[in-house]
Structure formats: structure tokens, C-alpha cells
Amino acid sequence: MTEKLRIAWLTTGRGPGSYGALEYTLRAIERGLPVEIAAVFANRAPGESEATDRLFDMVREAGVPLETLSSVAFRKARGGKLAKPGEPLPPWRAEYDAEVVEKLRPYAFDAGVMFGYMLIATEPLYTAFPFLNDHPALPNGPVGTYQEVIAELIRTRPLESGCLMNVVNGDLDRGPVVSFCRFPIWDAGNQMLWRWDYPPDQLVAGVREELPLYKDIRARGVARERPFLVETLRALADGNLSLPPGKPVDLTERVEAAVLRDAREARNG
Predict the structure, then answer these.
(1) How confident is the model at residue 242, as a pLDDT?
(2) Which residues, in sequence order, are bridge partners of residue 177?
(3) What letter does residue 170 receive in the DSSP assignment?
(4) Banded model confidence at residue 2, pLDDT cuts 50, 70, 90
(5) Prior bond to 227 cis, omega within 30?
């Protein structure tokens, strides 16, 4: 591919992870990543969240077009109900996604990236454009939020975990996998933390997050999720990945090289 890969970036922007991923990608673009962010979309409006407003400021400073549509305000204006786990999404969600499609349509992008986007995409959105979603596990690994994934890893005690990017479709967290990387979660550096069994009452929300093992696994994933995203975009831009995907591509070697580079740069200030 000779031209830059044009992407749309969808986020809720609710915390430092979302901010840091976009910042990391913008920095990679400055360094020569052949990608152009055609637009950033957020399902929050200006003034709705201090964290999201901070992300908006970064987007504007980078000169990237910004589109917003508050999903909360949209739901309330239509008298919609919140989605409940295990139940079908309420009708307003598809209506909302149809509006998102109209906001994104003018930007003519090759693929969308959902990073820290806290809404489940419905058919109007994922059939209009190809979207990639990051998930903090290996193919066929645990599903759910990263908190739920880590709890399941502690429960099942595998030697490794990973990150993947999948195509967004109606099968939550199980769309076709485009790329993945692996990393150890049990080695000489943390084997003392695996000496204990962790009963179910230690793996519930609000408790598990304080476990040293949980924090260790999370740190290993965070160190890789940003370079993994960038290397996935690089492979797409170079034509080494395609949408729809063929066989998932293992980017572990590239990601580990990037992790070492990031660590070296952090040490050198």
C-alpha cells in the first residue's frame, strides 16, 4: 500500500488508558507510521467528563477532526433504558449507532479502531464500516472486560496471555481475529505471586484489583497493548494484514522489540 492508511478512532475517553493509547499512536505517526487519523469520535460531549475533555484538547492540538455525540444525552432524550447484562440491547442503541454512521461517513476512512469505546457496536455501525476492537487476551482466551479477563487468568493459571485485535461484528469479543501477540504471565519475575490459591471471594470486583498478582498481570498487558495496536496498524498499512482477515498474524516479535525500545527511552528520559 503506497498511500497512508486512513483510520477513524472511536473512544469514550474515560481514563488514562484511552488517552495514552491515542497519544502513543499520534507519536508513532510523527515518527513515520504510515497512518492518518481521519477523525476521532467520542460518545461523550464536551463538558461531560473532565477526562474526556482532556482527550478532546489533545485531538484539537493534533489538528485531527473531532466528532462527538453523547450516548447518555441521546438515551435520555428518547426515554431509553440502560442495557442490562445478558439481555438484548435496547432499541435506542441501534438508533444511536445510525447517527454515528452519519457523523463518520464524510471522512472516507479505510478502517475504524475502537479503543476504550465503552459501547457495544450494533449492526448499523459494524455493517457500515470495518472496525477493529482491542481485546486483552489471546485468541480463544477469556472474554469480557480486562478486569474480568485477569480474574479468569488468575483462576485458570495459564503460563501466558496476550492481546488481540478482532473485526467487530455481532459476536462480542469473538469477531474474526486480525492479529495477536503473546507475553508470559508466569515466570521468574512473579513466580512467588503464584504460590497461593486465590479463592473466588478474592477475585470479585473491588477486591481483585488490590492483589499484587492482578497488578503484575495488568502491568504486563499495558506495556504491550499500545505498541501492539501500532504494529497492527503498521501491518495493515504495509499490506501484510487485510480486512476481512485471513489467518491471524502473530506480532509478538515486533511488539516485544517495541516494548524494549519504550523501556529504553523511559530510562533515558
Answers:
(1) 86
(2) 166
(3) S
(4) very low
(5) no
Whether residue 15 has pLDDT greater than 90: no
Q: What are phi and psi for residue 111, nearest 5 degrees?
A: -160, 155
The C-alpha cell at 127 is 455493517
| The three cell numbers locating residue 238 | 504495509
Q: 51 in helix, strand or coil? A: helix
Average pLDDT over residues 249-266: 94
Q: Is 4 left (phi over 0), alpha (psi -120 to 50) or beta?
A: beta
pLDDT of residue 257: 97
CA atoms within a 13 Å half-sphere pointing along the CA-CB vector of 201: 0
- In contact, 228 and 237? CB cutoff 8 Å: no
Are 167 and 244 a contacting pair, CB within 8 Å?
A: yes
- Range in 36-40, 171-175, 230-234 with the lowest mean pLDDT: 171-175
183 in Cβ contact with 162 (< 8 Å): yes
SS3 (DSSP) at 11: strand
At 11, list the grid cell. Answer: 473512544
DSSP 115-162: SS--S---HHHHTTS-EEEEESS-TTS--S-HHHHHHHHHHH--SEEE
Q: Does the pLDDT at position 241 exceed 60?
A: yes
Residue 68's H or E segment, with its range, is strand 66-68
Is residue 173 very low, low, confident or very high in pLDDT (cuts 50, 70, 90)? low
Angle, nearest 10°, between helix axes 16-30 and 50-61? Answer: 10
Integer Cα distance of 22 and 189 in angstroms: 30
pLDDT at 65: 98
Distances (CA, A) of 245 to 28, 174, 175, 249, 251: 24, 13, 10, 9, 14
Cell of 30: 510523527
172 CA to centre of own chain: 13
